[in-house]
Amino acid sequence: MKAYQPEVTTNSSTVVRYAFMKLTADCACASMFFGKIARHTGEDRLALLVIFFNIIAIAGRGLVSLFADRVSNPHQGVRLSVLLLVMGFLWPVELGITVKVLLAALGSCFFHAFAFSSLLSRSNFRAADVGIFLSCGPLGLAVGIGFPFFGYLAAPLLMIAAAPSDRGESLPHAEEKRLPKAPKTSLAPLFLILLLTAIFFLSAVGAGVSFSWATGRKAPLLLALAALAGRMIGGYLFDRLSIFSLLAAFGGGAALLISGGDSRAVSLLAVLLLEMTVPALIALAFRTLPRHPGFVASLAAGASYLGYLFPRLLPGLFGNRLAAVLLSCGAALLISATSEILLLHIGRRAAKQEPSQAQTENES
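^ that's the sequence the OP posted. Answer follows.
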């Protein structure tokens, strides 16, 4: 006799659970590097291992996502990823640090590919789901770096959260509800490239602007909390205000970065405002390719990482903060606003044409 299970009508419970899993996964990875591995290696090798981890975890995510977007139950891939990540976390350093990092990198790669594919495909194009999932990442990294001991608590919590099945699998996928938010258009590849460029600029601003007060253990935690609040608020507001939330976030964040970079309160508010745009940009990119949710999110992660590296490869680029912030934020705002307006316009035209096409088919 089957046990009674209530009908699943929303994706909310899965979003919250995956957000918690992202927090614990990022915390465990950061704790592994700055708690375990840092005690057995020098700074130079630690930096190389972090780069090796990111190459696999970020660059390899796109290939895994192409497979994740085609499976019927992505949660099985999430469980596999948790197994790999925890194996890497528990792998003894004496048996090989490179193997330890490789296992954890593969686990992070698989987790983000399958989790994003599962969440976005059933998000009904809501940016709030993206914001909730992404908001916990910076907090997990900050806790793992500043307090590595918490990694030993995060790893078992990650396994506990992955154990239950995903009851939301029966919800309809995004491609079944394309119009009018995600209309079919031949301009989709162009929109996607432009939005990835906007994500690149936004990440470059965050990595290129430094704050004089950001020293000590408390600073990364405060910045992570500001990012958490910004991403959650930004996804919620974008679903209701659309372009106006982007205007306020980009404009206000850029103005505060330029005018009050030495004030802790002003800087945190600027970070909060700019982070509000992250879920909106990913949700917009997802509308261009609704059949490939995990792949779109992987491309966005790659663009964000390249933007993070850009100021470090060209350190003199952000010497003039005014010009750099205005150029980056202005370009990202122009791209995202234009993409939103054009997508809505194409969607309205497609919605008007759809009834007439259906009528023609019925008559024939």
